[in-house]
Design goal:
With 440 residues, the protein is an alpha/beta fold. The chain is 28% helix and 19% strand.
Length: 440
């Protein structure tokens, strides 16, 4: 089968060898668990518990407040200590539910009980996904129920299962494909019941030949599923780039993939769908990669939502003495953390620890108009023009030169010899345009 891809992009150091051969290990919950009400794109969930309440594992503690929202569930049994403001990994302060773990692990009725996928209707599956708090676990955090129930469900012909994992260092999706491939397939089958005319394509970068082989064996008996190898290149797993690679259809910021007959779901999200639909388990845990040259024992851990990043790093053997930088997520699109005392949420994909801060050791200089940023931008933008507009506070110009089409992948900043903080400029530019539109 031919290998597909998109145009442009970059080839950063992969770093996956540190953790790719480490099987997933489960860790227990901590004594104090913290659950932010906003763990997804859209409106924050609405708290439905109060201080002093006793809760069970798998109990809803915050309900979806709007259509684009998602409920939050407790991953432990215990007592609600407070509903208060706390910081999350990007430094934002938001409302959080704090629960003291009683270590009894008492679950709500029916938790973990088997359900037969074949006996469920499409409407029942949609309701289960909606009520289970599942969001995109690849990093975006868009509520999965909204994504897989488009208005034009009959018009969706392609369901792409994103197993690319193009971010350097991250290996949790790879480990899921190697260890829980059957669950990924069952989750995919559940989504396909919502999309009667779609066929599923499992896209995997060609640096994971064993995962490609494993998934090909699993889909061999399903005529609505195939595996498609794609080129190892960043950002191959970006939604727009992956859609183009598989279907040659182009998506922009004013469109949804469903507008072009496509839906993209991450492999980890498929596992969560399987657990919700077939095992009656809401989203209360996720697999994370803990890695980097500054980690004592790189690994892949199955983590209860609500524990702190510091606790997870401790379970991974801690950081080396000369560790200087900690990142939540991948090195290209992740967030540098000023504190590890923040909770793991649904979109927490990894903890990266480095012994050198490349941002601080590589000094910034003036743009020399070399065009390297243009040559790698997967959106075919001109980052140097966008940066100039933002620096001049000319946000109308930023919008005119396509700034709102930026996907924040970081290819331009990676390629820039002047080390200009382009992504930070573009985030500021996009936020300013949104504010400008709201005022109008």
């Amino acid at each position: 089968m031919s290998i597909k891809s998109f145009k442009k992009g970059v080839h950063p150091y992969e770093g996956k060898e540190l953790s790719k051969d480490c099987p997933i290990k489960s860790i227990s919950a901590d004594d104090i668990m913290v659950y932010p009400l906003s763990q997804h794109i859209g409106a924050p969930a609405q708290c439905v518990v109060s201080a002093g309440d006793r809760v069970l594992k798998g109990q809803m503690i915050a309900q979806a407040s709007e259509t684009i929202s998602a409920p939050v569930y407790s991953s432990v049994s215990g007592i609600v200590k407070a509903v208060e403001k706390r910081a999350v990994c990007d430094g934002t302060v938001m409302d959080c539910i704090v629960i003291e773990n009683d270590r009894e692990d008492k679950c709500v009725d029916g938790f973990g009980e088997d359900r037969q996928l074949e006996s469920l209707t499409a409407q029942q599956i949609a309701e289960i996904i909606k009520n289970s708090g599942i969001v995109g676990l690849g990093g975006a955090g868009f509520p999965t129920a909204v994504k897989v129930t488009p208005k034009n469900a009959d018009g969706i012909d392609t369901l792409i299962i994103n197993g690319c994992e193009c971010e350097p260092y991250l290996t949790y999706d790879y480990r899921l494909m190697m260890e829980k491939g059957a669950q990924i397939i069952e989750g995919t089958k559940a989504v396909l019941k919502l999309l009667p005319n779609a066929k599923a394509v499992i896209a995997i970068e060609d640096n994971k030949p064993d995962a490609i082989k494993a998934m090909e064996e699993l889909v061999a008996s399903y005529d609505r599923m195939t595996v498609q190898p794609v080129k190892t290149k960043y950002p191959q797993g970006g939604e727009r780039q992956l859609i183009y690679a598989i279907t040659k259809r182009k998506i922009n910021s004013k469109m949804l993939p469903a507008d072009k007959g496509v839906i993209v779901v991450n492999t980890a999200t498929c596992v969560a769908v399987y657990e919700a639909v077939c095992k009656n388990m809401p989203l209360i845990h996720r697999v994370m990669t803990v890695t980097g040259e500054g980690v004592n024992s790189p690994c892949n851990l199955d983590v209860p939502l609500g524990v702190s990043h510091a606790y997870v790093l401790e379970k991974a053997g801690g950081a080396k003495e000369d560790a200087v930088k900690f990142i939540s997520g991948g090195p290209m699109m992740g967030v540098a953390m000023c504190s590890l005392d923040v909770p793991v949420v649904k979109t927490s994909s990894s903890i990266l620890v480095f012994i050198q801060d490349d941002v601080s050791v590589l000094p910034q200089s003036a743009c020399i108009h070399c065009g390297k940023c243009v040559s790698v931008c997967p959106q075919n933008l001109v980052p140097q023009m966008m940066a100039k507009a933002v620096k001049s506070d000319d946000f109308k110009r930023f919008e005119d030169v396509g700034g709102m089409e930026c996907i924040g992948c970081g290819c331009c900043a990676y390629a820039c010899p002047a080390k200009i903080p382009l992504i930070q400029l573009f985030k500021y530019g996009k936020a300013s345009v949104i504010n400008m539109r709201n005022k109008d």
